[in-house]
Design goal:
two-stranded antiparallel ribbon, 4 helices, FlgN-like, cilium, FlgN-like_sf
């Protein structure tokens, strides 16, 4: 991005990318609900790339705000927009903010789904580790070895 670029230059790109991110997060939510690990594994690199692109463009917009004499943050956009009096740019900014809020909410819900799945997995693991029967029940250790939960089969010779 050149030093002559305005803070509004990145907005269209950012808006397109946040829309794509929201769509990926909706897909992620469906994969989480259906416990589709393969789908999640394919989606994650694309999601990470979009987040990185968004972060880079946001940094570029902040730098352009600073060069224009405004606060280099989201808070600097309102004064800059007021000085521009460009309704198309303001509209894109408003849409970007709305999509960002949707992405934050999707992220919150997806995080809850992930935590629920982790709790379920922990319950299953605990059930596998806990004997349900008598002394003849065998358990599996971390390396796959079996060990019994009943009395020792060793004899003391004395």
């Amino acid at each position: 991005m050149s030093s002559m670029t305005s803070p509004g230059t990145t907005l269209t790109f950012e808006h397109e990318r946040i829309e794509a991110l929201v769509e990926l997060m909706k897909q992620e939510q469906q994969f989480l609900v259906s416990a589709d690990a393969d789908g999640l594994a394919q989606l994650t690199p694309r999601k990470v790339a979009l987040v990185q692109e968004l972060a880079q463009r946001s940094r570029e917009r902040h730098a352009a705000l600073s060069r224009a004499g405004f606060e280099p943050s989201e808070a600097g956009m309102e004064p800059w927009l007021a000085a521009q009096a460009d309704e198309a740019v303001r509209s894109t900014w408003t849409a970007l903010l709305a999509q960002t809020l949707e992405a934050k909410e999707l992220n919150r819900v997806n995080g809850m789904l992930i935590n629920r799945q982790m709790a379920h997995n922990q319950t299953v693991l605990n059930a596998l580790r806990t004997p349900t029967g008598g002394a003849d029940q065998a358990l599996y250790g971390a390396k796959g070895q079996t060990f019994g939960s009943g009395p020792s089969q060793r004899f003391v010779v004395g």
